[in-house]
Amino acid sequence: MAQAADTESSRTESLPVLWQFRMSHYNEKARWALDFKGIPHVRRTLVPGLHMVRLLRLSGQKQTPVLVLGGQVIVGSGEIIQALERAYPMPALFPAEVSERQRALELARILDDELGPVLRVALFHEILPDSALCTALFTQGWGAPRRALYRLAFPGVRVLMRRDMRIDARTAQDAVEKTLVALSRLDNLIRPASYLVGDAFSVADLTAAALLSPVARPPEFAYPMPQTDIVDRVRERLGHQRVFDWCRFVYAKHRGRSAEVTLSKRAQAEHA
């Protein structure tokens, strides 16, 4: 048994390691890129509110996702995708044609800046008051006793999350208005059953669909999403059903299989 565990540890120690939140659209971007390229990797799931010390030690900051790739610590989904495209160029997420590549990268950047942050604020403003829902979202894979302790601690975690994301009634309303603007722009770009740039799936489509996923709730999302009518109400408030339908089309066609390597408990401890 010990020899088998040592063999497993040796086999996996050189794999990329993704430090992630499960229920996060920026983290989903990084996971999707790894899976799309078929890159075997290890995932280390963190829990909001309990993650900061670990990430500060690893990367000098407290945001996810963080990828450790060949000894390099890479912070942020956009930077992670850039690094993966250099190290694993096929299958490509960047279009080969120069002008299309520039358009795809620029659109991904705009979506990261103008849609992702405000959609997160609008959604978290609605779900953070529900301690039971947030516990279910954030502690998947935990046993009942630890989940119960996290729920007891969640009022304090909620304060930290609202402070870090600058969430209050005013910023939430502003976020909804800005989300509607971003969705309108995206609605003008999408073509049903097609792609944002050129005739093939690219980083632009991956970015848009991943950022929309918490509200669109595609069944191919990497982890089970707890059932709640809160998200449905947010989606109805935002409208733009065509955009969310397009997101589900992209997921159904391109999300594919996970390339995560599942470790034994001993190997997980060694990777911790």
Distance between the termini: 20 Å
Any idea of the CATH topology of the largest domain?
Glutathione S-transferase Yfyf (Class Pi), Chain A, domain 2
By CATH, the architecture of the largest domain is named Up-down Bundle
CATH class of the largest domain: Mainly Alpha
What is the H/E order? HEHEHEEHHHHHHHHHH
Which residues sit in consecutive blocks of at least 5 with pLDDT less than 50? 1-9, 265-272
The largest sheet is: 4 strands, mixed
Mean pLDDT: 89
Rg over C-alpha atoms, rounded to the nearest angstrom: 19 Å
Number of helices: 13
* Strand arrangement in the largest pleated sheet: 2-1-3-4
Features of this protein?
Glutathione S-transferase Yfyf (Class Pi), Chain A, domain 2; Glutaredoxin; 2 domains; 272 residues; four-stranded mixed beta sheet; mainly alpha
